[in-house]
């Protein structure tokens, strides 16, 4: 019996071991099936691509694109065939119901398409053994529809390392002798947004000239050859829609009959902008001498004839018909009665007539035909005034042309059958100023606005106005990647991760982090002021350059700081260029180098011109050098633009980049002042905090004392030493106290080195500390500080036997309350706070504060989410239920103060949700702060030029000492950037001064 038990036990163990082996083998087999390498090129083996001639043309087009990609890597090109032949490695690509081999595999149970069948633009990729009698193994790409198949095929191109910008930015693939694809069985999701694409706009200075003069001279325009390359790019980026170029410089899209067939071959859906109803380009198709006035109230039959013609021409093609009507050239429509009701009623009549045309010419119900209504500019007012819009028309909301969406669907509108979408700008021509040259829209801002739109159910149409495509490459890809799968972009940090992955793909992992940092710093500086806005000029009407708001004598000199920030970008970018592999240098030049150098040099051009004018007023010889540096920056832009157009890729991109779109003043070389002097050289001094230089001839001048140094903020200030007159001047600076530190204490000014900035700081360990008291005022003025809390001394500047004395005063009290204090403190009559650096954060009942990284003046803003939370407007409810940010700060003064809150200038999503927060100091009743602007007001113009909305609320600081600022959520989604509590000492500056945090 014992033997039998042992034998049974032994057999059981064997069975268990065998079973475990079988399980392990099965797991390994499943893993091998899920992830395996499919050989494309190895020695004489070259995979072929099998498609069905009955399938859509885009399937063959995508297959040929992929075959060319393989060729560009290996020098060997797969054959795209419609005939089955004996092969070791074959790619079978096709659409369900359109490919006989695919359908046969489905019928035989070799592939399962139940998850994607009858779905919108989905695909499946997998390896199938013995898919046909003659093929041993195939890589099978199956699409739910024609675009799904194309996207699946081009996913293979991504898999082998081919960038979507392979042609448009010359991202040359890495060469390899053999090539295989590492396949994980993949089933794509449905796209987050149904129709996704771009609007080619304001093409006069780039895309149209390049096409007409370089790429497609046989057409002399943006024609079918150019559009084919655009459509290929859209497929690679998984987009499906285009609004074609429509300026008067370009012939209408449908004037070239082949254009619409090329679009259909590439499976691209044609739509049109807010100013082009029913796929008609009014700018160039409306002939006044033949058709009369473009007015629906007096000439509707002629207008309907144009609409009818276009619908007949496009009835069998995929399109999105823009309904409604605007005037010519992006203007309001003309009506006989100049009142809103008349305009609304006429617009309703236009839409009714348009839908009747659609029904008649397509033989379909309008509800089954894609249509869009774009409430842009004045049309938004008509919609808000009660315009009745059929439920099946998609509402395409717009931004205000500067990246801030004006309105989104309210809860009732979110139920509309037609859904909603967004028309968004990264390029714009119009007031208050164009930005047509570089891509200066912050990508995190774009993410914030588009994620908000997605949250409010705008998921049917996303269109990006990208101007000439170049140099908007990155933002185009980000926009379309979000539209493809918004689940990948749940956090603001997702954008930086996307940028890093993009940089790694294009330029290698070794450089990706550095490139990402360069791009984010470039974005931060452009957010503070776009390069195109640096002349402080405006358009409509076009004005000359204005006075800069950047201060040159307060807060460390904003102009010099901007120059230095951009110089840092230049240095890193030029260094990176040397590290990029040779085969990717052209791509780096287009995607990183030119945009960064261009933005940097335009900023330096204007910043040096500001320095020139400022120093010339002080009689500094250095003014001439600053003028020369401004001109040098201008010449660098011209040099790089010439290289881009005429040298890069042997002139492939000639005419694509214009450094002066519309020839506005911001792009010109600024006028500069010249200083001439026959006097013997002498030393001049200029101090931080004073607009004029030190004047030794004025007795009892107050311009000989630096601002007060504060021990709690560790202040530093500068003194400029400069040459007056011609010649060489030696100088020496001698502090009269051992606690005064200088960055340099002597030197020589020459014609090559006409001035030097000396930074003054304090060694606080050597400064006598004041009495131990609870409170003491730090006056805004040097003379107002109590003697017991300040220590006075001076710096003597000696040159050519002459001594000039500069006063130095250090504020160094000993307050027990600040001994272990961590928070903000008053400095020179203000407290400056970055919103993200709160002391405490208290959650609300429905919402909470959250940090967004990568936007705002400090590269971080804070907002209350979710955006769908209920606004709180009752003060008691706010105090009980609203999330609150608390900031501890300490003041040396007291009285009525101005609390300045800087927010991102967003708009209310819809009526009932505003752009408000509430603030209070200590236990005061919260005061509402409202950032909403109306229409295109002067306030709105200033806000979008600065990317900032600053609102002020009065509060009382009842005593010197510790206090707490509270910021309460009123409306969710308000983006708080910075705070400045002004006790009367804040001087004029563009941005708030740096944080006054206790150090």
TrEMBL record:
<dbReference type="GO" id="GO:0005975">
    <property type="term" value="P:carbohydrate metabolic process"/>
</dbReference>
<keyword id="KW-0732">Signal</keyword>
<feature type="signal peptide">
    <location>
        <begin position="1"/>
        <end position="29"/>
    </location>
</feature>
<dbReference type="InterPro" id="IPR041437">
    <property type="entry name" value="GH115_C"/>
</dbReference>
<protein>
    <submittedName>
        <fullName>Glycosyl hydrolase family 115</fullName>
    </submittedName>
</protein>
<feature type="domain" description="Gylcosyl hydrolase 115 C-terminal">
    <location>
        <begin position="823"/>
        <end position="995"/>
    </location>
</feature>
<dbReference type="InterPro" id="IPR029018">
    <property type="entry name" value="Hex-like_dom2"/>
</dbReference>
<dbReference type="InterPro" id="IPR031924">
    <property type="entry name" value="GH115"/>
</dbReference>
<dbReference type="Pfam" id="PF17829">
    <property type="entry name" value="GH115_C"/>
</dbReference>
<dbReference type="GO" id="GO:0016787">
    <property type="term" value="F:hydrolase activity"/>
</dbReference>
<dbReference type="InterPro" id="IPR042301">
    <property type="entry name" value="GH115_sf"/>
</dbReference>
<dbReference type="Pfam" id="PF15979">
    <property type="entry name" value="Glyco_hydro_115"/>
</dbReference>
<keyword id="KW-0378">Hydrolase</keyword>
């Amino acid at each position: 019996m014992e033997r039998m038990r042992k034998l049974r036990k032994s057999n059981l163990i064997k069975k268990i071991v065998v079973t475990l082996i079988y399980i392990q083998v099965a797991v390994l087999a499943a893993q091998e099936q899920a992830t395996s390498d499919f050989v494309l090129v190895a020695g004489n083996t070259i995979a072929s691509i099998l498609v069905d001639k009955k399938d859509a043309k885009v399937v063959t087009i995508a297959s040929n694109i992929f075959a060319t990609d393989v060729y560009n890597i290996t020098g060997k090109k797969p054959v795209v065939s419609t005939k089955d032949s004996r092969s070791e490695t074959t790619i079978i690509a096709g659409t369900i119901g359109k490919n006989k081999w695919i359908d046969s595999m489905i019928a035989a149970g070799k592939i399962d398409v139940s998850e994607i069948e009858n779905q919108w633009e989905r695909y499946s990729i997998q390896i199938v053994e013995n898919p046909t009698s003659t093929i041993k193994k195939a890589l099978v790409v199956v699409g739910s529809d024609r675009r799904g198949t194309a996207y699946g095929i081009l996913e293979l191109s991504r898999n082998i390392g081919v960038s979507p910008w392979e042609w448009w930015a010359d991202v040359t693939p890495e060469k390899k002798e053999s090539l295989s694809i590492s396949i994980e069985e993949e089933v794509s999701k449905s796209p987050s947004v149904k129709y996704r694409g771009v609007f080619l706009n304001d093409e006069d200075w780039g895309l149209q000239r390049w096409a007409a003069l370089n790429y497609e001279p046989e057409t002399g325009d943006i024609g079918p050859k150019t559009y084919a390359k655009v459509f290929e790019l859209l497929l690679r980026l998984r987009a499906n829609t285009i609004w074609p170029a429509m300026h008067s410089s370009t012939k209408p899209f449908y004037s070239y009959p082949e254009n619409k067939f090329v679009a259909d071959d590439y499976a691209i859906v044609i739509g049109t902008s807010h100013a082009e109803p029913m796929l008609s380009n009014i700018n160039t198709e409306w002939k006044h001498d033949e058709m009369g006035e473009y007015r629906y109230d007096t000439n509707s039959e002629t207008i309907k004839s144009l609409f009818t013609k276009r619908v007949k021409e496009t009835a069998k093609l995929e399109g999105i018909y823009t309904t409604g009507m605007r005037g010519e050239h992006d203007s309001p429509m003309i009506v006989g009665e100049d009142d809103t009701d008349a305009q609304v009623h006429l617009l309703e009549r236009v839409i009714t007539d348009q839908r009747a045309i659609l029904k008649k010419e397509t033989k379909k119900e309008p509800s089954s035909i894609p249509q869009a209504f774009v409430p842009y500019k004045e049309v938004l007012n008509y919609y808000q005034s009660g315009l009745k819009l059929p439920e099946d028309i998609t509402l395409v909301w717009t931004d205000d042309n500067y990246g801030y969406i004006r309105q989104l669907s309210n809860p009732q509108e979110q139920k509309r059958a037609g859904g909603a979408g967004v028309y968004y700008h990264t390029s714009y021509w119009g007031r208050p100023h164009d930005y047509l040259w570089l891509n200066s829209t912050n990508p995190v801002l774009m993410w914030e606005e588009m994620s908000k739109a997605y949250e409010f159910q705008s998921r049917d149409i996303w269109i990006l106005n990208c101007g000439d495509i170049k140099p908007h490459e990155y933002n185009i890809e980000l926009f379309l990647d979000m539209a493809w799968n918004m689940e990948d972009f749940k956090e603001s940090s997702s954008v930086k991760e996307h940028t890093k992955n993009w940089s790694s793909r294009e330029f290698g992992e070794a450089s990706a982090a550095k490139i990402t940092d360069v791009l984010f710093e470039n974005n931060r500086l452009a957010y503070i002021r776009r390069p195109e806005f640096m002349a402080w000029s405006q358009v409509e009407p076009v004005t000359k350059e204005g006075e800069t708001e950047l201060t040159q004598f307060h807060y460390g000199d904003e102009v010099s700081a901007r120059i230095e920030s951009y110089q840092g970008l230049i240095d890193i970018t030029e260094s990176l260029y040397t590290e990029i592999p040779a085969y990717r240098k052209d791509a780096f030049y287009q995607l990183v180098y030119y945009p960064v150098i261009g933005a940097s040099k335009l900023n330096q051009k204007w910043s040096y011109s500001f320095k020139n004018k400022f120093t010339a007023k002080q009689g500094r010889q250095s003014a001439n050098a600053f003028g020369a540096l401004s001109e040098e920056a201008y010449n660098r832009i011209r040099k790089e633009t010439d290289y881009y157009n005429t040298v890069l890729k042997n002139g492939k991109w000639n005419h694509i980049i214009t450094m002066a779109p519309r020839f506005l003043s911001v792009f010109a070389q600024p006028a500069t002042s010249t200083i001439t002097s026959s006097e013997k050289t002498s030393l001049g001094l200029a101090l931080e905090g004073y607009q004029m230089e030190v004047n030794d001839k004025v007795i009892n001048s107050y311009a000989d004392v630096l601002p007060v140094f504060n021990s709690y903020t560790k202040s530093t200030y500068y003194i400029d030493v400069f040459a007056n007159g011609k010649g060489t001047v030696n100088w020496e600076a001698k502090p009269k106290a051992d606690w005064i530190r200088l960055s340099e204490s002597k030197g020589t000014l020459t014609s090559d080195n006409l001035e030097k900035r000396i930074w003054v700081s304090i060694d606080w360990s050597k400064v006598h500390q004041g009495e131990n008291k609870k409170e003491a005022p730090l006056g805004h003025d040097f003379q107002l500080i109590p003697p017991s809390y300040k220590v006075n001394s001076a710096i003597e500047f000696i040159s050519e036997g002459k001594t000039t004395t500069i006063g130095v005063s250090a504020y160094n009290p000993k307050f027990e309350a600040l001994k272990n204090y961590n928070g903000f403190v008053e400095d020179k009559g203000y407290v400056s706070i970055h919103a993200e650096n709160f002391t405490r954060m208290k959650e609300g009942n429905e919402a909470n504060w959250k940090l967004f990284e990568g936007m705002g003046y400090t590269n971080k803003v804070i907002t209350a989410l979710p955006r769908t939370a209920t606004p709180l407007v009752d003060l008691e409810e706010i105090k009980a239920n609203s999330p609150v940010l608390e900031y501890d700060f300490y003041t040396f003064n007291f009285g009525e103060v101005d609390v300045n809150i800087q927010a991102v200038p967003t708009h209310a999503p819809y009526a009932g949700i505003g752009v408000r927060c509430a603030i209070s100091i200590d236990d005061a009743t919260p005061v509402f702060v409202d950032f909403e602007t109306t229409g295109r007001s002067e306030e709105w113009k200033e806000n979008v030029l600065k990317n900032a909305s600053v609102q002020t609320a009065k509060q009382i600081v009842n005593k010197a000492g510790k206090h707490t600022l509270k910021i309460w959520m009123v409306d969710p989604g308000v983006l708080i950037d910075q705070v400045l509590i002004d006790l009367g000492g804040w001087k004029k500056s563009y941005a708030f001064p740096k944080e006054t945090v206790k150090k």
